[in-house]
Design a protein that fits this description.
It is an enzyme of class 1 (oxidoreductase). Keywords: Carbohydrate metabolism, Glucose metabolism, NADP, Oxidoreductase. With 484 residues, this protein is an alpha/beta fold. It has 2 domains: 129 residues, NAD(P)-binding Rossmann-like Domain (Rossmann fold); 257 residues, Dihydrodipicolinate Reductase, domain 2 (2-Layer Sandwich). Helices cover 31% and strands 22% of the residues. The protein has 12 helices and 18 strands. Strands 7, 8, 9, 12, 13, 14, 15, 16, 17 and 18 form a 10-stranded mixed beta sheet that branches. Strand 10 and strand 11 form a beta hairpin. Helix 5 runs parallel beside helix 6 and helix 6 runs antiparallel to helix 12. The chain is globular, with a radius of gyration of 24 Å.
C-alpha cells in the first residue's frame, strides 16, 4: 500500500508560525561522517553567516570518541571553507557540543534529546538501515511537539523499506514536518527550471510531444570513487543518482504549471508526473545499461579500476554508470523518451537537461547545411541556459550553421544544503521530497534493478577518462522508440 498524500499543512498548535525566529537546536546524527564535513556544515555556515536563524544551537553526534573541542574544530573548519565568519557563525561554533552515542539505542537518544532546547530539527546523516533503526527507536520514546526531521538520500533501500520507513515517520511527526533531502532541489535549480518554463511564452507551448523528440537528463563527472566505497559499493549509480536526483529533475521538466510554488502545489505536481513514469516499453533489458570504469586517466588524474579501489567487492558488480530510458505517460509527454544517465570517471563534466526538438517538417530546397536539430539546454553546474538553433551562416547566406545562445542563471544566495536547511528551520517543505513520491521513485527503478541482479543486462566496462561504453540508448533501430 502506498502512503497517501498529506493533507494541506497548517500551524502546529502551541508553536510559533513557520518563519518566526525562535531558538532552535539542530541535532546532527552522523556528524563525524563525510557528508557533514563536505556539504552539510558548510551549508549551515553560509546560512548562519547571512544572519538567518539567530539563537541556533548545534549538537553533533557520532560513534567516534570525540570531545567538544575536536567537534568545534570540525565545525569551524567546515565554516571556513565557505567564508562563513562573523559573530553569529562564531557563536554557533563556540556553543556547539558533541555527544558520542549509538543512535539506535533508546537510552542514548533520550540523553541527546535532553540537551536540546527550543524547536528541534534532527538531521539523519546516516546510512539507510541505521536511519530506519533510529527512527523506530525515536517512535518508541517520542519527540517534542513541532520537531522536524531531515533525512538524507537514499530514502530506504527499496520500495518495501521506503514504505516501512514512511510508516514509522508517520507515527513520529506529520508529513509536512518530514524533510527528505535532495540537494539537487536547492532553490536555484528548482526556480531556474520553473521560471524558464512558466514565465516565458516562447518555451512552454512547444514543450510537449508535438514538438519534442526526446529529453536527456545527464549527470556525468570526472571524479572516481573518492573514498566512498562503504556507501557507494552498496548503492551504485542507479540508486545514488538516478533513483533520487535525476527523477526529481525529470519531474520538474515534465510537470504542468503549478498554481503557486507552495509545497502543496509544487510537490503535488511532481507526484503526478512520477506516478505516470515507467521504463520505456516495460522492457528494462532493452532500455537500460550499466557499466563500470577500468583504469585510466580522468581530468589529469590517474585512476585505478573501480574493482581495484580500496574497500570494493568486485564480485558485487556495482555499476559506476547507469542509463535508463523512461516514458512519461501523460497527455503532454506520451511518446517522448526521457533518458536518464549518470556516470563517474568520464572524460568531462556534463550536468544538464537537454530538450531535443523534432526536425522541421521540411527544410526548403536551396538551404544547405542542416544537420543538427534545435536543442534547449538547462545546465546544473554551472547553472546556465543554452539554446542551439540553426541560422544562416556567414558567407553563403543559403548555408545553415548551428549556433549556441547562452545565458547564466543568477546564482542562489545559499549553497543547496543551506537552502534545504533553511526550509527545515522555517517549516517550508517545498524543497523536500514527499513520502509517496519516494515510493514511486523506487517503483520506477526496481524493474531495472531486478533485471540487473538477474544478470539479464551485462555489466559493460569503459576506461576512466573516456566517453563511456559506446552509443546512447537513444540511438535504436528505426521505429523502435515508437513502440513504447
Amino acid at each position: 500500500m502506498t502512503t497517501s498524500p498529506p493533507s494541506a499543512p497548517g500551524p502546529v498548535a502551541g508553536l510559533p508560525a513557520a518563519g518566526d525566529h525562535v531558538s532552535q537546536t539542530l541535532l546532527l546524527l552522523g556528524g563525524t561522517g563525510d557528508l557533514a564535513a563536505r556539504l552539510l556544515l558548510p551549508g549551515l555556515g553560509r546560512l548562519v553567516a547571512t544572519g538567518a536563524q539567530p539563537g541556533l544551537t548545534l549538537i553533533g553526534s557520532g560513534t567516534e570518541d570525540w570531545d567538544d573541542e575536536r567537534w568545534r574544530r570540525r565545525v569551524a573548519d567546515a565554516f571556513a571553507t565557505v567564508g562563513a565568519d562573523g559573530p553569529r557563525a562564531a557563536e554557533v561554533v563556540r556553543t556547539s557540543r558533541y555527544v558520542s552515542a549509538d543512535v539506535t539505542r533508546e537510552e542514548d537518544l533520550r540523553r541527546l534529546l535532553t540537551l536540546c532546547r527550543g524547536r528541534l530539527v534532527i538531521f539523519f546523516a546516516l546510512p539507510p538501515m541505521i536511519t530506519a533503526r533510529t527512527a523506530a527507536a525515536l517512535a518508541r520514546i517520542g519527540l517534542p511537539p513541532g520537531t522536524r526531521l531531515m533525512l538524507e538520500k537514499p530514502f530506504g533501500t527499496d520500495a518495501v523499506s521506503a514504505r516501512s520507513l514512511n510508516g514509522i515517520l508517520a507515527r513520529l511527526v506529520p508529513e509536512d514536518q518530514v524533510h527528505r533531502i535532495d540537494h539537487f532541489l536547492g532553490k536555484s535549480t528548482v526556480v531556474n527550471i520553473l521560471g524558464l518554463r512558466f514565465a516565458n511564452r516562447i518555451f512552454e507551448p512547444v514543450l510537449n510531444s508535438a514538438h519534442v523528440a526526446c529529453v536527456d537528463v545527464v549527470f556525468d563527472e570526472t571524479l572516481g570513487l573518492e573514498g566512498r566505497a562503504g556507501y557507494y559499493d552498496g548503492a551504485g549509480a542507479l540508486v545514488d543518482m538516478v533513483q533520487s536526483h535525476l527523477l526529481q529533475v525529470l519531474a520538474l521538466i515534465a510537470m504542468d504549471a503549478p498554481p503557486t510554488l507552495d509545497a502543496w502545489d509544487l510537490r503535488g505536481g511532481k507526484a503526478q508526473v512520477l506516478r505516470a513514469t515507467r521504463v520505456w516499453g516495460g522492457d528494462p533489458v532493452r532500455w537500460s545499461r550499466r557499466a563500470r570504469y577500468t583504469a585510466g586517466e580522468a581530468d589529469g588524474r590517474r585512476l585505478p579500476a573501480y574493482a581495484d579501489e580500496p574497500g570494493i567487492d568486485p564480485n558485487r558488480g556495482t555499476e559506476t554508470l547507469a542509463e535508463v530510458v523512461l516514458a512519461v505517460d501523460t497527455w503532454r509527454w506520451a511518446g517522448v523518451p526521457f533518458r536518464l544517465r549518470s556516470g563517474k570517471a568520464l572524460v568531462g563534466k556534463r550536468k544538464e537537461a537537454v530538450v531535443t526538438f523534432k526536425q522541421p517538417p521540411r527544410v526548403p530546397t536551396g538551404l544547405t547545411g542542416y544537420e543538427q536539430p534545435d536543442r534547449l539546454r538547462i545546465g546544473f553546474g554551472p547553472d546556465r541556459l543554452g539554446l542551439d538553433v540553426n541560422i544562416n551562416g556567414p558567407g553563403n547566406p543559403l548555408e545553415l550553421d548551428q549556433v549556441n545562445l547562452t545565458a547564466d542563471f543568477g546564482p542562489g544566495d545559499l549553497p543547496p544544503y543551506g537552502e534545504v536547511l533553511r526550509g527545515a528551520f522555517e517549516g517550508d517543505p517545498a524543497l523536500s521530497v514527499r513520502g509517496d513520491t519516494v515510493e514511486d521513485s523506487w517503483r520506477i527503478v526496481e524493474p531495472v534493478l531486478e533485471t540487473w541482479r538477474a544478470g539479464a543486462v551485462p555489466l559493460q566496462e569503459y576506461p576512466a577518462g573516456s566517453h563511456g561504453p559506446g552509443d546512447s540508448l537513444l540511438t535504436p533501430a528505426p521505429g523502435e522508440l515508437r513502440r513504447h
